[in-house]
Amino acid sequence: MRTIDFSTKARLKIARKTLIILFILIPSYVMPQPLQTVPYVNLEKYSGLWYEIASYPQRFQKGCHRTTAEYTLSDRGHVVVVNRCNRDSINGKESSIRGKAFVQKNSGNAKLRVQFFWPFRGDYWIIDLADDYSYAVVSHPNRNYLWILARTPVIDEKVYNKILKRLKDNGFDLDKLQLTKQVP
Fold this sequence. Notes:
23% of the residues lie in helices and 36% in strands. With 184 residues, it is of the alpha+beta class. The chain has two domains: 1-31; 43-179, Lipocalin, CATH 2.40.128.20. The longest helix has 25 residues, at 6-30. It is globular.
C-alpha cells in the first residue's frame, strides 16, 4: 500500500477545494447575468421617431441605411411600430414595415412583444434609456439582437461610449455591433 505524506494530502485537499470554487465562480464570468430592463418606460415620451445609431446586423435589415423606427400609441392599447430604411444606399429606395407592440404585464412598459407578421411575436426589451428619452437601447433576452437608438441621426461620442461600456459590462459582444449609415 502506498502512503502519501501529509503535505501531498494537504495539497490535494486544497486543489479539490480550488476546483470546487472555480466550478462555482466560472459560470458567472462565462455566462452573463439575465438581461435586465429599465424599471419603467413612459410610452408617451417613448413615442415618436427614433434613428438607429448602431445594431447587430440582422437578415431582415440587410442593405438598410438611414434606418428609423417610429412608435405611436394606439387607442386599442398597443403601440404601432413603423420601421423604415433606404435600401442598398443612403439615397436608395425607401422600404418600410408596419407592426404592433404589446406591453408585457408587470414590466413597467420596458418589455414588449413586437409583431410584424401574425402570429409571430418577438421580444423587444428596453435595457437602457436616457432620463430625457434622447437615446434608448433595445435587445432580446438572449442578447442576439441589439439596437442603439437616438432622437437624432448622430449621437454624442461620449454618450455613445458610455452606452458601449454598459453593454460590454452586460455581456454583449461589441465586435458584432455595426454603425448605421445615417445622414446628419
